[in-house]
Amino acid sequence: MHGLALTLVLATIMMTWTVAIHFFGIVFLLRLLSKHSHRVAHLSEVFRQILLLLFAVLGIVALHTAEIWSYALVYLQLGAISDFEPALYFSTVSFTTIGYGDIVLGPQWRILSAIEGANGLILFGWSTAFLISMMGKLRTLEHDWLEK
Predict the structure, then answer these.
(1) Which end of the chain lies in a sparser environment, N or C, as judged by fewer CB atoms within 10 Å?
(2) CATH of residue 126
């Protein structure tokens, strides 16, 4: 398998891998939040929700970090980028769809980086939906708190 077909297969594998990281990571976060929320039960409801939300945000950041690093390691293994720091930088810029363009891949792998951007957009959307669902509860508590 050569050229575009190889790139598309690799992109599909990477998308599957990062979606799996995200899915299992969010399931793990939800289980941790559920299992350990009693540890902050002594705090007021508002502060408890803020701490749980902060934990969720840090967990989401850890998931995105693992996903970005996964792509960076692939770029290194392919020889598309020769050193880790530029590979990590390039992957971060691609995954977040910033796309500065100061580092570009050769023609064989540029489709992979474009698909990484689409992958990142989808996963950031998923993370946003997850955090919004958590914020819904906090907003209800905030509304109750402000009316007192």
Answers:
(1) C
(2) 1.10.287.70
CA-CA-CA-CA dihedral for 89, 95, 96, 100, to nearest 10: 50
Kindly state the percentage of the chain with pLDDT values over 70.
92
In the predicted structure, residue 11 carries a pLDDT above the cut 90? yes
pTM: 0.87
Distance in angstroms (rounded) separating the CA atoms of residues 109 and 115: 10
Q: How far apart are CA 92 and CA 94, in angstroms?
A: 5
d(C-alpha 80, C-alpha 78), whole Å: 5
Give 53-65 pLDDT, tens digit per residue. Answer: 899 999 999 999 9
Cβ-Cβ contacts under 8 Å for 97 (sequence gap 6 or more):
117, 120, 121
CB of 93 within 8 A of CB of 19? no
The answer to whether 12 and 119 have CB atoms below 8 angstroms apart is no
Q: How many domains does the chain contain in total?
A: 1
* Residue numbers of the domain that contains 62: 3-14+22-35+43-147
